[in-house]
Design brief:
Elements: H1 2-27, E1 39-41, E2 44-45, E3 50-55, E4 64-67, E5 75-80, E6 87-92, E7 100-108, E8 114-121, H2 148-174
Parallel strand pairs: 2-8
Antiparallel strand pairs: 1-3, 3-6, 4-5, 4-7, 5-6, 7-8
């Protein structure tokens, strides 16, 4: 009886949850690959570093006015480039810039379309991927230690165990018993 009551309550709740999800998807904007963003390279920079920005939102021969005043760099111009109809520009992060995430914006000269991208300012230069070196201290120990006498004794013990096991299996197969 209890299970039926739970199922009666679960069905309307499931339907309501599904309606909320569908409504949320319908209200969400759909972004396509129309080049409507401002690409910032490198996306992480240090104070005093140079940053390039590019966008395809302004068309093949379009120009744009960029604004990096959020980070303190001021205005810059994006000019058409030969790279697949993109407009490109540069600015320098001021040495006084504080760490944080800053919005860099550009507005197309024709049409007034506004695009933006994020720049992260850090105090330390980002390094290339660091590969681990050395051994891992797990507490289990290694197969080969620094003492060759102990290594030789371990190998000899394994050899004796293997020979003894083979001899016992051979006797059992012949029917001699153990």
């Amino acid at each position: 009886m209890r299970r039926t009551a739970v199922l009666r309550l679960a069905r309307p709740l499931t339907g309501a949850a599904l309606a909320v999800v569908v409504a949320g998807l319908a209200a969400a904007p759909a972004y396509g690959g129309d080049g409507g963003s401002l690409d910032v390279f490198p996306s992480t920079a240090v104070p005093g570093g140079d940053v390039s920005v590019n966008t395809a939102a302004c068309g093949a021969d379009g120009t744009a006015n960029g604004d990096a005043s959020a980070v303190g760099a001021g205005r810059f111009t994006l000019a058409p480039s030969a790279h697949e109809g993109q407009a490109i520009g540069q600015f320098r992060v001021p040495p006084s810039a504080q760490p944080g995430t800053y919005e860099i914006v550009a507005q197309c000269t024709e049409g007034g379309r506004r695009v933006s991208g994020d720049l992260v300012v850090t105090l330390a230069a980002s390094r290339q991927q660091v590969h681990p070196r050395g051994s891992v201290k797990t507490g289990v120990g290694g197969a080969l230690g620094p003492d060759p006498v102990q290594t030789a004794a371990g190998v000899a013990a394994l050899a004796v165990a293997a020979a003894g096991g083979t001899w016992l299996l051979h006797r059992r197969a012949r029917g001699d018993g153990i």
